[in-house]
Amino acid sequence: MPQLDFSVFPSQLFWLIVSFFLMLFIMSKFIIPKTSEMINLRKDKINGDLEKASEIKIKVEETLDKYNKSLQDANNRASLSLQKTKDELEDMINCKHSDLMFRLQSEIETGEEKIALSKDKALENIEDLSVELSIQILNKLGFSGVKPKDARAVIKNLKKEL
Question: What are the CA-CA distances from residue 41 to residues 2, 47, 63, 65, 88 (Å)?
Answer without folding.
Answer: 49, 10, 32, 36, 69
